[in-house]
Amino acid sequence: xxxxxxxxxxxNLFVIFCLMAILLLNPAVSQARFSxxxxxxxxxxxxxxxxxxxxxxxxxxxxxxxKNPNQPNRAFQENMAQQLQWMGAKWVRIExxxxxxxxxxxxxxxxxxxxxFINDIAPKYGLKILAxxxxxxxxxxxxxxxxxxxxHLNDQPDQEDGSNPFIRFFANRLKEISDHYGDNIAAFELxxxxxxxxxxxxxxxxxxxxxxxxxxxxxxxxxxVKLILGATAATGDPYLDHVGYLTNIYNSKGVLTFKARxxxxxxxxxxxxxxxxxxxxxxxxxxxxxxxxxxxxxRRAGDVYNKLWITETGVxxxxxxxxCTTGATNKADDAQxxxxxxxxxxxAKRQQDIAAVFWFKYEDFYDNGQVQPFGLVHLxxxxxxxSPYPGKIVRYKPAYLSYQQLALPxxxxxxxxxxxxxxxxxxxxxxxxxxxxxGPFLKYWQENGGLDLFGxxxxxxxxxxxxxxxxxxxxxxFERERFEYHPEFAGTKYEVLxxxxxxxxxxxxxxxxxxxxxxPAPPNSDPKKPAPPPDRYYFNETGHNLLGTFKAYxxxxxxxxxxxxxxxxxxxxxxxxxxxxxxxxxxxxxxFELHPESKGTxxxxxxxxxGKQALKSRSWL
Length: 621
Known about the structure:
The chain is of the alpha/beta class. It has 17 helices and 24 strands. Helix content is 30%, strand content 17%. The two termini are 33 Å apart. The relative contact order is 0.10.
């Protein structure tokens, strides 16, 4: 799959969408200052290497960071990498693209667009790279390059090895990439859906020669790098003939000649280290059936050396990206999560034959202005696929949470072991939630309201990329807030700042509040006496009033520095924790709840559990 699907694939997606309408009716379907030791976690359904994801290619986001023009968008790449790490993905697939450039045969591979992600960011977050080398890596744009257009893969051979100019150039291009990155790219996928890409069905005989020549070019110098046979698309379309097509590749002259050789790299007699597969069906059981078909083809061909790599599979979630409505929208997301759970759980039972499963894909994307909701997250992006530079997530979909629950990666919410001296002037351990509080965060917690205002810690401190500015901060979550450590303000009252959870959660839940008119103060009842202090504020910054009991609480407990500006008026709402109805008011960092049963006590106004709510949305609790 890609942002530009050929007509035949678009038809397949349309069929999938129509069938999903039926399925939806029944989905059935600075850190050392905060260090801590973590306890063990439950076992995932498969080892980390089993979990893959198709990520957003760095090529698309080059020169999209306004702070760093003509550079890779490291803020976006780091944010994505951290989200993938928390999701539990070990593999991320990205695709190489050549740029048109006169005088450069086949186009220019601008490694500067990829270097930071492949050499720095992916290793930092423990990710392995599967690089797709597809038709976009060879461009026939220059006058002498016409034989490098993808259709020329099917040209007749002009040399004794069975190759043609396209095949030779492709193999050399693969070597160019592998020589540049070495083992930092752990695996290559050779071509994308060759049984129908761009309306062109690659000749299996030519594909066998291409694979063999590419293997010979790369493998001797890079024996640890895996070369994966380009993914056959399996959609049920008879034209694609997924079983027959893969069978013909195994029976091609290039593969059989390679197999008969005696100079193989290791024991594997085939010119690839795995077979990629792209099953796309509404039902995960149909996708798994075709995976079993592929495995049967491999074993009949005598290939007991390689495993199947499902390098793409997925279904659409909701088209309503912000999930602001109920009904069919939520059913689509539930069906997507159901598909993901089944495909991963059942494929995990076939690990002797299936190496990894890659979900297509990390984020929703746009194709000709129409959203393609395959993603596990929805980003703040426009219809040209441009995302603000940090890659801000509008919401996590249920399928993201299902993926995380199956992979079970270590998360910051993992319980911490109690220190030998659990409580001291600089450290406090909370057995209620099994987390530590220390250093600047402990000092801030104690001086600004403690348990009543912030609640218990729900994580230990850890580094997190801020969704708004793309910077990395040491953070710690509490039941009602997120603390952020800002070393640039060390020694000042701004050393610890609070997250804007009110803004973040209302945005994710599609709550928006119109600006209100100023509520006038009552007239002074006795003009001879000085006017009393104002009993209400109007904040022009956000267009909302604050008065009465909520104003008194806001003034007493820290005001603007702790709660931020009001972003709503008072209104009635059910509490997501207990289901009871309260009068509430939202602020940039908090939600006030009025508890009349506690009138006259310190608990007449209570704060919503924003921290707990936010972590539940990530499936961390």
